[in-house]
């Protein structure tokens, strides 16, 4: 009884046998997958609304004021150019959209399960940095996704202008949704760059002055990255991605410079009253001079020899 209770006690440093690690990983994955399945069912219920939301930017680009599902049975005019092909196409697309929506909706659950599995093996300062990274990373990703969603109408309008006259441009719905999804993911992940730079500066790996010295290469690199990363080839999408990333890079550089200044001021003040100063553990050679000086430092025996009684003095 006592032995089983001791086995259930958690190690304060998060150590556990390999079998326990595998069991915990299995439980965490099971909870994450269950949350994704439940969220996918919710996405299946709101499948039509999700389709309307994802196709709205392209619909706006061609002047449509009605949702795609309301125009699905119409085939005339520019608003009816979004099409589907194949007998299994609608069903496959429904499953794909539902699973994607499930992963997005259940992201707080499976991110927490991932954090709960990794956190016991981290130190206190590492946990603090990790929590700050997650807390700031999710809003930045959402800002990038929101930005890409509102850039899509302008990008679609530019691309559709290349359609030859008297030609009808048919837009397959599955390809359109893939394009929108890639745009959202690319923009969202790109907005994480300044956060990565700030975290490198907080850990002392990169200084703000060094980051500032990268500005020419960073502008060129971000521009080239935007040209290859955006699914579309129009300059509107490329500049819409490159401009905010460069701006966020300079914001991260300014924050890093301020953080370096604060760190230097803290080091100049020395340790606080409730902090122990660093010990100088540098080994030193002990020579003859030190030995002689140490011998001289010992007090001389100036008192007269004590009277011995039966072979012992009064001390012993």
TrEMBL record:
Membrane topology of the entry: Multi-pass membrane protein
Q: Out of the domains of life, which is the source?
A: Bacteria
GO cellular component terms attached to this protein's record = TAT protein transport complex
Q: Where in the cell is it found?
A: Cell membrane; Membrane
Q: Which Pfam families match?
A: TatC
Q: What is its main location?
A: membrane
* UniProt key word Transport: yes
Give positions of region: Disordered: 268-316
Question: Which GO molecular function annotation, any one, does this entry have?
Answer: proton motive force dependent protein transmembrane transporter activity
**Composition bias type Basic and acidic residues, residue spans:** 303-316
Its GO biological process annotations read: intracellular protein transmembrane transport; protein transport by the Tat complex
Give the keywords, sorted: Cell membrane, Membrane, Protein transport, Translocation, Transmembrane, Transmembrane helix, Transport
**What ranges does the record list as Acidic residues composition bias?**
272-288
**Transmembrane portions of the chain:** 29-47, 93-117, 129-149, 179-200, 212-230, 236-258
Summarizing the function annotation, the protein's role is:
Part of the twin-arginine translocation (Tat) system that transports large folded proteins containing a characteristic twin-arginine motif in their signal peptide across membranes. Together with TatB, TatC is part of a receptor directly interacting with Tat signal peptides.
- Annotated family: Belongs to the TatC family.
Q: How does it assemble?
A: The Tat system comprises two distinct complexes: a TatABC complex, containing multiple copies of TatA, TatB and TatC subunits, and a separate TatA complex, containing only TatA subunits. Substrates initially bind to the TatABC complex, which probably triggers association of the separate TatA complex to form the active translocon.
Task: Report the protein name in the record.
Answer: Sec-independent protein translocase protein TatC
């Amino acid at each position: 009884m006592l032995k089983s209770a001791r086995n259930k006690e958690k190690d304060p440093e998060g150590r556990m046998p390999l079998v326990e690690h595998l069991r915990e990983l299995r439980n965490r994955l099971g909870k994450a997958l269950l949350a994704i399945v439940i969220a996918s069912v919710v996405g299946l219920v709101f499948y039509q609304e999700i389709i309307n939301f994802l196709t709205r930017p392209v619909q706006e680009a061609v002047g449509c004021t009605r949702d795609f599902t309301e125009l699905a049975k119409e085939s005339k005019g520019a608003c009816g150019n979004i099409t589907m092909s194949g007998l299994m196409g609608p069903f496959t697309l429904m499953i794909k959209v539902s699973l994607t929506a499930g992963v997005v909706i259940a992201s707080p659950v499976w991110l927490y399960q991932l954090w709960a599995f990794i956190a016991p093996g981290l130190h206190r300062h590492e946990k603090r940095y990790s929590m700050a990274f997650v807390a700031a990373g999710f809003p930045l990703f959402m800002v990038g996704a929101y930005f890409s969603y509102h850039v899509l109408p302008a990008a679609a309008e530019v691309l559709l202008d290349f359609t030859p006259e008297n030609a009808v441009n048919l837009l397959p719905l599955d390809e359109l949704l893939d394009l929108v999804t890639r745009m959202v993911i690319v923009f969202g992940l790109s907005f994480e760059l300044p956060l990565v730079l700030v975290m490198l500066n907080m850990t002392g790996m990169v200084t703000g002055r060094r980051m500032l010295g990268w500005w020419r290469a960073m502008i060129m690199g971000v521009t080239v990255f935007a040209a290859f990363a955006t699914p579309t080839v129009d300059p509107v999408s490329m500049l819409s991605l490159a401009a905010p990333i460069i701006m966020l890079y300079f914001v991260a550089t300014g924050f890093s410079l301020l953080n370096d200044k604060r760190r230097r001021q803290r080091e100049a003040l020395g340790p606080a009253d409730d902090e122990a100063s660093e010990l100088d553990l540098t080994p030193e050679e002990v020579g003859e001079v030190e030995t002689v000086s140490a011998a001289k430092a010992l007090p001389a025996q100036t008192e007269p020899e004590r009277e011995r009684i039966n072979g012992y003095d009064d001390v012993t």
